[in-house]
Amino acid sequence: MDRIQIRGGNRLQGRIPIGGAKNAALPLMAAALLTDECLTLSNLPHLADISTLANLLGRHGVAIQMVGDEANEGHIGRVLSLQAKEITNTTASYELVRRMRASILVLGALLAREGKAEVSLPGGCAIGTRPVDLHLKGLQQLGADIDLREGYVHAQARSGLRGAKIVFPFVSVGATENLLMAAVLAKGESTLSNASREPEVVDLAACLSAMGAKIEGAGTDTICVQGVDRLHGCQHPIVADRIETGTYAMAAAITGGDLVLEGARREHIVALAEVMTDAGVTLEAVPGGLRVSRSDAELIGVDVMTEPFPGFPTDMQAQMMALMSISTSAAMITETIFENRFMHVPELNRMGADITVHGASAMVRGVKQLVGAEVMATDLRASVSLVLAGLVAEGETVVHRVYHLDRGYERLEEKLAACGAEIARLKH
Ligand code: UD1
């Protein structure tokens, strides 16, 4: 299994290109199921999760072709064409769904197009139980019969889906996306209230609209959809990854460095930028991106609570904790989205951090210096927090189980090494 070896202490300086957002790419790829025409997605990141979904879509009958992997109209990622002329199979098997929870995103689209779908229940994951009850309840409100048998969701809508008023009891990104994909082909009008306002939902709505869907209110908490009979193909560039942006912003901050994040969009990281500014980090918009730097100024402890967008993202909580672990004061970090998202705490403590967990909050008392150690990655964002800690720790850090990182960060070690980090992937 690959490991990442880091020798800490170098200030990072240079430019890092930000890729397309994984969490936008996944629902956008699933949207290909909604039309028999060709959907062309550009700025696609090259990541394990993208290949997993491509594999699953292939089993449903989607023909997928790499159209290019060069720079394309200012976008750096790959260009993929996806065409589902016919849906050949409506079953998403456990074998593929268990590898990636986001596979549940095919449910709404398959049901809308074919009137039926059988999708394996994704089960729990390292960061919590993560049920899909909101997805299923919403689809039932759109007129689907849902039956749970032998670990699978069996969904049917014999006479098609009908528009409905859906009120989510709390914000769910995935449920909003699944219901949006189902509603665009349902008969009549649907309203999604308490919908997710995440930029990835806005990107999905923009693409669906370009495919002929009638959607209003994406980016607010109420989305209105007027169902249409059919959708057509389109070309869509995937929005820049705000979590990759935030992660490299933290890399600049933690090392006292100076990085330009190319293609980053400040409006997608407003809450994070505020917190980082309060902590003593400088963020400024520059042509084509965002510059993040920290001089020798002290890092100040700042309390943070994770919230749905536009609040502070749960996907940046572990990285923020790594930064706060070397602040000159203390910071309380509270996780409100997932119930088990502090697995990086014991690993950071092995590197000399002083963090104690009390229920959903972690008290981080800043230490002068982290020290390199062998540590274990447990999930995607937890693993990158260990890399960040390694960049500033004294001596050598080895992060094990980096396959978690490969699910969400493209060429992480190359991007960091190009800016002066001493980092390498050890293959075994
Ligand atoms: C997405 C992101 C993930 C991010 C999360 C929150 C993708 C592929 N993943 O995950 O990186 O951390 O948003 O910003 O986009 N919940 C239920 N029932 C449901 C659905 C969700 O109880 O039917 C709960 C979850 O367990 C969690 C909370 O709601 O506690 C929010 O989850 P949700 O927004 O749905 O996250 P995902 O879409 O799975």
How would you characterize the overall build of this protein?
- Helices cover 30% and strands 26% of the residues.
- The longest helix has 14 residues, at 242-255.
- A four-stranded mixed beta sheet has the order 22-23-1-24. It has a four-stranded mixed beta sheet with strand order 2-15-17-16. Strands 4-5-3-14 form a four-stranded mixed beta sheet, covered by helices on one side.
- Helix 6 packs parallel to helix 7 (199-210), helix 8 (242-255) packs parallel to helix 10 (317-324) and helix 10 packs parallel to helix 12 (380-392).
- By secondary structure, it is of the alpha/beta class.
- The protein is built from 14 helices and 24 strands.
- Strand 22, helix 12 and strand 23 (396-400) form a beta-alpha-beta unit.
- The protein has helices at 22-30, 48-60, 94-97, 106-114, 133-141, 173-183, 199-210, 242-255, 270-279, 317-324, 344-350, 380-392, 403-406, 412-417, and strands at residues 3-7, 13-17, 38-44, 63-68, 78-83, 91-92, 116-120, 145-149, 152-156, 165-167, 189-193, 214-216, 222-226, 234-237, 258-262, 282-286, 289-293, 304-305, 330-334, 354-358, 361-365, 374-376, 396-400, 422-426.
- The mean pLDDT is 94.
- The structure holds uridine-diphosphate-N-acetylglucosamine (UD1).
- Uridine-diphosphate-N-acetylglucosamine is lined by residues 23, 26, 101-102, 128, 130-135, 172-175, 200, 314-315, 337-338.
- The site of uridine-diphosphate-N-acetylglucosamine has 20 residues, from helix 1, helix 5 and helix 6.
